[in-house]
Design a protein that fits this description.
Distance between the termini of chain B: 15 Å
Structural class of chain B: alpha/beta
Order of helices and strands of chain A: HHHEE
Oligomer: heterodimer
CATH topology of one domain in chain A: Histone, subunit A
Strand content of chain B: 5-15%
CATH topology of chain B: Amidase signature (AS) enzymes
Distance between the termini of chain A: 42 Å
Largest interface: A-B, 52 and 69 residues
Radius of gyration of chain B: 21 Å
Helix content of chain B: 25-40%
Amino acid sequence: MAIDKETIKHVAHLARIDLQPNELDKLSANLQDILGFIDKLSSLDVEKVSPTSHILPISNVLREDEPRTSLTPEKALENAPSKKGSFFSVPKVIE
Amino acid sequence: MELNQLTAHELLEKLKSKEICSRTILLSLSQRIEKTDPKVKAYVRNQGPVKFAPQDEAFGELNGLPVTIKDNICTSGLNTECCSKILRGFRPPYDATVIDKLKKAGAQIFPLKANMDEFAFGSSTENSFFGPTANPWKLDCVPGGSSGGSAAAVASDEAIWALGSDTGGSIRQPASFCGVVGLKPTYGRVSRYGLIAFASSLDQIGPLTKDVEDSALLCGLISGYDPQDSTSINQSVPDYTKSLTGDIKGLKIGIPKEYFVEGLDPEVKSVIEEAIDKLKSLGAVIKQVSLPHTEYAVPVYYIIATAEASSNLARFDGVQYGYRAQADNLLQMYKETRAEGFGQEAKRRILLGTFALSHGYYDAYYLRALKVRSLIKQDFDRVFQEFDCIVAPTSPTAAFKIGERTEDPLKMYLSDIYTISVNLAGIPAISVPCGFTKQGLPVGLQIMAKPFDEEMLFKTAYAYEQNTDWHKIKPKL
């Protein structure tokens, strides 16, 4: 499977990362190598194998819906790069 | 012998009899750090003399004994940055469950955190925003990774013991490179609450220690069900120190032939073969076994781990914590924050994972990888029907030179070839020192067991350790 620069640009947009032109070249080459190696998997017949997304035989772990204390707004905002009142503040979204 | 050179269980004896107090241990560590850490660089954000919180009353099982913590485990009020620029200045408002458990047992959380590859992405600790850690045995070599800071700190007596995390070998491989004991517990044995997530279906926290007894002790302290982590398992935690009997007569040990193929360094191979002979002389029954899907483990891992990482790292967007780039609009703020905040390897893995999950590629990559993961797990299930444990090298080589593999990510990924399958199968494994190369670099022996059979690991590792002296040899710094 070949991965071209346009695909990488698209994936970088999906991942919300701005790439510099020199980074784009290097990462394209790296990912091309890695995907070439990963292609090894296509030689296996896995049609009848079920996927393992989770190793333990547990599913749908639920808990009682009971109120409990959580972080105070002050505590939750302690690490915020920018805040206003009891909110995280970000650049304008709507003009 | 200085206090910092002792094991935790030796120090606990002295604390119990009031021969020493925890303050003297901290002083001994801080003097050692001042002397050797400028060379080793196991700790990050080290601003000269280590400052300690005023001494609380020593209490509990640990009586104030210090524990060193990897920089990706949340410690309340103490910087936890995953050695990434994007988490610059992050002080968690809460403790990870393992930290909470250790504090309740009377531990002091060491005020400096251990170096690591950014977000645990790496096998050499060279991907740290703060720069690499050196291998205490040979300063121009890597300590392994990603828990390289934890391993190097323990090996150089800058820590009594430490916690690391293991997603594809990140505890065992640095333990092997630095000549210490490293344990990855069964997936679900230790709570991941407060461990900054890399790949949620693979990550486990575990101990790096000077000997097997300390490993058993620390594993017991951090294990157990946690309602805050819905993947932790509600199963009682045995007293692991009871497995330290030294008796492995009649134990059935499998040696996987796929781990002794091309790529295994001949020197490492002969050291491992000697260790296997030792186990045989102690009464274990050794037989060759097969784990036929071993060669697919690395490709499967680099799809699953990067897919999970790309999703987990979406939260680092400059809004709630850490670094934020200045930009006029929100989308550009996200993109520039992530461009400036993540290092090269983090970007590489996020892009690979995003690609593997993206429309049109999901079935060919991610779904296929999940299916091959089942095959890898079935290989282990089959062997464990007949065998008590599996023994193999931890890594195909001893520590490599700093800079040697940074330009070739694929070559770096292959240094985890013997550790990755364990995470994919969710089983526990331990690495114990088993000798040295001619250059004087340590080699680790890996022991793997069935899920929730950590006792088997401690039993086998302890029997081996008690009949060898490798763990007593220290690097000259």
